[in-house]
Amino acid sequence: MDRFSKFTNMQKAIMKAEEELSIHGRLDADKIIILLSDGEINRPRLNGREDLSYARSVALKEAGAAASSKITIHTISIGKGNVDQELLEAIASRTGGKNYIAVSPVDLIPIYKHIAKQVITNSSESEEEFSYNPAVGEQSNDDLVQEVSTSQS
Fold this sequence. Notes:
By secondary structure, the protein is of the alpha/beta class. It has helices at 10-24, 52-68, 85-95, 108-121; strands at 31-37, 71-78, 99-102, 132-133, 138-139, 145-146. A four-stranded mixed β-sheet has the order 1-2-3-6, with helices on both faces. Strand 1 (31-37), helix 2 (52-68) and strand 2 (71-78) form a beta-alpha-beta unit. Helix 2 packs parallel to helix 3 (85-95). Residues 135-153 have low confidence and may be disordered.
């Protein structure tokens, strides 16, 4: 939900987060990126033109680089637009993370709490399925939040 532009460059976002973790991250800490997006990727351009397949492929390539650096990426799509859920799931899956869906900003609270619990307890492996139903404001078996396999590709 970038109100400043109409562009989403997930490759650059992942690259910048990796750079930040490599420069400022503690050596003994788990490295985790939370990629929050409207899910509509359209950058970088290829030869000056928008090319969605190119933008998707470089984002996935960068996720692979993050996985090689033992960085986990959790993806969160927010809103109801043209979300590329397949791409967000692939990025999360490739790095051992999870993909979450937030329909509104209020839905972010339980998602961030869930991610924090995983980090604190280091329980990414044998974890119960998590979902959140915004209508009742509590955890439920709704499809709002989707788990992605934690096996790295």
